[in-house]
Amino acid sequence: MGIGKESIINEVEENRESLIKIAKSIWENPEVGYDEHFASKLQSDYLKEQGFEVNSVEGMETTFIAQYGSGKPVIGILGEYDALPGLSQRVCTHREAVIEDGLGHGCGHNLLGTAGLGAVTALKALMEKENIKGTIRYYGCPAEEGGAGKVNMGKRGVFNDLDCALTWHPFDINTPIRCGMLSNFSVRFRFKGKASHAAQAPYNGRSALDGVELMNTGTNYLREHLIDSIRIHYIITNGGDRPNIVPDFSEVWYYVRGKRAEDVREVFHRVVNVAKGAALMTGTHMEYKILSAIYDFYPNDVLTDVIFENLSLVGAPKHSEEDEKFAKKLGETFTEDERLSVAEGLSENDNIIEEYVHEEVSDLKNGKHHCLSCSSDVGDVSHMIPTAQLSVGAWPIGTAAHTWQSCSASGSNLGFSAMLVASKVLACSAYDLLMNRDIVKKAKEEYKKDMKNFEYVPLMETIEIE
Ligand SMILES: [Zn+2]
């Protein structure tokens, strides 16, 4: 290991306590997308104190960009800090909410953003010491969970002069993410009918809830005729007020996802047709509103190789015996089948679930034509500029995101150890890019080749609204 990387790793270690404190406070004060006032202030204040130039982004209150250095290349590290509803959970190995039905960090974004803070701080110290040219940026990105924060940031041009973007996600395995992630449309379908007394004069009413139910039934029939990577899920957000009133309003919220944005767009139009059919059958009126549409994630191999090299150098998170016991007990709350089905997403080792914490660094070789069954607005950034990410084992092996178990682990030492590893890997990788312009050039060539003649336009703007 060179002196530069050694000093990055030491610097992250020196900031260990303050980084853990930040990640812990964000975990203890969960906020949903676009409401992350506490987290964004805590992080931007920290970076201001560290001597970064911090800028806000117009019209996006909980977004900020912290920058150090000058000139090319400009390397960005993407951070997130939003939480999820209903996932409030104590750090323990059984289901116990801090606040019943409260918010919780079930996706570990308290760790995600804070690792980026650690990375740019360590890099800045080294850049000052060695007089390294170039610019580093931390992007405080709001609302990853369903809010497409990075799409809205992209519309404001904040990624335009960026050369490469790096990020990570807390999962269960230590590996570069060489595969894609799903494109995702988030859409609310609203049915309007006619209210009536459900016993006295039901024939005078037209049930909006019937519209929703028949739409869902139709969509479930549609599933048989869709390609494998498509995922459709929905919740009924309004099903009426009382059983004795024929509901004149009902709403269902859909996610339609798939490996490629163009496939999802096509399926989305078929789902709209199902909704139209349901409205026709029930004599109701249907309208829909697309809340967000994000691209699939497209990894850059040149950058992912850099990430793998540095992950191998830094090594997997180390755990105390106590942490291992905690991971085993937490992991045992899933069945073996559940654990295997999740662990397979990021590991090609069939015996992976024999352990509860991932103590090695593996290299998921499946490549960019495979896909993880989840989505992220990092996908849009990957369609704008060369982007790469890694996964670090912050949760017991086989733990899915958006569970009480992932929330518990994200507030524990398991999560904090993973965060510090991610910090070091991101900083060392960005350092390689600052020191070796040839890598940046090659990453850009690969991006150009992959994207062919694609010119980034937010996915939402490519959808024909019927
Ligand atoms: Zn996430």
From TrEMBL:
The Peptidase M20 dimerisation domain covers which part of the protein?
Answer: 186-276
Checking InterPro entries in the record gives:
Amidohydrolase (IPR017439), Aminobenzoyl-glu_utiliz_pB (IPR017145), Bact_exopeptidase_dim_dom (IPR036264), Peptidase_M20 (IPR002933), Peptidase_M20/M20A_hydrolases (IPR052030), Peptidase_M20_dimer (IPR011650)
Write out the GO MF terms: dipeptidase activity; para-aminobenzoyl-glutamate hydrolase activity
One GO biological process this protein is involved in is: folic acid catabolic process
Q: Which SUPFAM superfamilies match?
A: Bacterial exopeptidase dimerisation domain, Zn-dependent exopeptidases
This entry carries the following GO cellular component terms, namely:
cytoplasm
- State a single Pfam family of this protein: Peptidase_M20
Kindly provide the name given to this protein in its UniProt entry: Aminobenzoyl-glutamate utilization protein B
Organism (species):
Clostridium collagenovorans DSM 3089
| Source organism phylogeny | Bacteria, Bacillati, Bacillota, Clostridia, Eubacteriales
